[in-house]
Known about the structure:
This protein has about 450 residues and is of the alpha/beta class. It has 20 helices and eight strands. It has an eight-stranded mixed sheet with strand order 3-2-4-1-5-6-7-8, sandwiched between helices. Strand 2, helix 6 and strand 3 form a beta-alpha-beta unit. Helix 3 packs antiparallel against helix 4. It is globular. Guanosine-5'-diphosphate binds next to helix 5.
Amino acid sequence: LGNKIASALRSLNAHVVVDEELLDACLKDITNALLASDVAVPLVVRMKKNIVREVDLDNMASGMNAKKVLERAVFKELTALLNGGGDASGTKTSGTKTSGTWTPKKGKRNVVMFVGLQGAGKTTTCTKFAHYYAKKGFKPSLVCADTFRAGAFDQLKQNATKAKIPFYGSYTESDPATIAAAGVKRFEEEKSDLIIVDTSGRHKQEEALFEEMREIASVTEPTMTIFVMDSSIGQSASDQAKAFASTVDVGGVIMTKLDGHAKGGGAISAVSETKAPILFIGTGEHIGELEAFETTSFVSKLLGMGDIKGLVEKMNEIVPEESAEKLMEAFGSGTFTMRLLYEQFQNLQNMGPISSIMSMVPGMADMIPKGGEEQGTKRMKSMMVLMDSMTDAELDAPNASKIFNVKRMERVCRGAGRLPSEMITLLEEHKRLGKMMGKMKGIKMPGAGGARGR
Ligand code: GDP
Ligand code: MG
C-alpha cells in the first residue's frame, strides 16, 4: 500500500505544472491503492472528497507545491482514520477516546476490559499488555472471565504464571460476571493498579455474547475497554467492530497478528468504525511482541516518507554514537558518500531484522526486495563486497555515481567477483539515496544529538 501511494505521489514530481488532470490521475492511483489493500469503499470515497477539498488547485497560492499539499492532505486523512476519527474533521477528542495516547494512571484504579471475537488474540494480548505495564512499574493483575471456552482459565493461568502476573479465575463458577466482579474486588484489595479482565469471545457475534459483555462491564466498571481485532480477517472486521462498539464503550483498539500477511486496510476500516484509536499492535505470539502504536510513524511509513522518529530511536539504541552523528550530519548537509552507505550497511547488520529497520529509513523501504529478509541481506552483502574493492578516494567522493568510468567499474567488479549489473545497481541505489538526503537537507532530526543521553 505504502509503495503504491508513494509512487503515485512521486509521479507528480516528474511534472513541472500540476494541473487538474494530473492531480486526478494521482488521486486515482492513491484511491486504488487503498481499495486494493482492503480499505472500505465509503471510507475511501470520503477520504478522496476531503483530499480534493484540501487540494483546491484554483485557490492554491501560486508557487505552493501541489505535491506537498497533496501529500499533507493524504497524511492528514490517514492519520485521522487511524486515530479513530475516520474523518480529519470529525476526530473525537472527549472522554476516553482522545486520540492515540491513553495510558493507565499509576497507583489509581485502572480496570481494563478486553473484548473481541474468539481467536482474536484477547488472552494472549492480555498477558502481553500486563507484561508491558509491569515493565513500566505498574502492578498488573489478570482476571479470567471466560467460562465459555473450555480451558480458557488454564490458558490464562499458564500465560500469567510464565509472566509472573497475579491471576484470578474459577473452575467451578459458570457465571462470567460473578467471577469478574470477585476478581476485580480481590485485586482492588491487593492494590493492583492495573486490573485486566479477559472475556469470552464465542465464534460469532450473538446476542448472548453482547449481553455478557454488558453484564461484565456493569459489575466491573472498567475505566477502559479494549477491542481486540484480528487484522488478518480484512473488511469483515468492520461489522464486528461496529457491533462491539455499539454494545460497550470501546475506548481503544489492539490489532493482532500484524506479523502475518494481513491486508492492513481492512483493519484500518474496522478501526474507524469503533471511533477509537489503535493503542497497540500485536506482532507475534511471544509475550514481548506487542508494540505501542504511533500513528504518525505508521502513516509516514505507509506513505514512504520513512519513520524518522522510530529510526532515530532505534539508532540511539544500537548504532555507535560517532556513526549516528555522522549520519545525522549527512542528513543535514546533503552529502552522501559511498563510505557512509557502507557504514550504514554495517550498522544495519548489527541492528537485527533488516527489513524492519530498512522500512524505517527514508528511501530504503523501496530497497527491500520481494524475496524479503534473506534477499535483502544478500543484496546488501553484495553491495558491501563491491565497496570493499573501491579505493579510499572513491569511497569518500561526494559524487560517487559520476566518477566511475566503465574501466573502473569493470575493475571493481573483477576485484569483488561481482557482476557489472550489481555494480550498476549499487551506483543507482547510492545515487537515489543521495538524492533523498539532498531533499532532507536542513530537516530537523528528532532526538538527534542531544537526546542520546535518555
Ligand atoms: P482469544 O480467543 O481472543 O483469547 O485468542 P487467543 O489469545 O487464544 O489467541 C488465538 C491465537 O492467536 C493463539 O494461537 C495466539 O497465539 C495467536 N495470536 C494472538 N496474537 C497474535 C499475534 O499478534 N501474532 C500471531 N502470529 N499470533 C497471535
Ligand atoms: Mg481467550
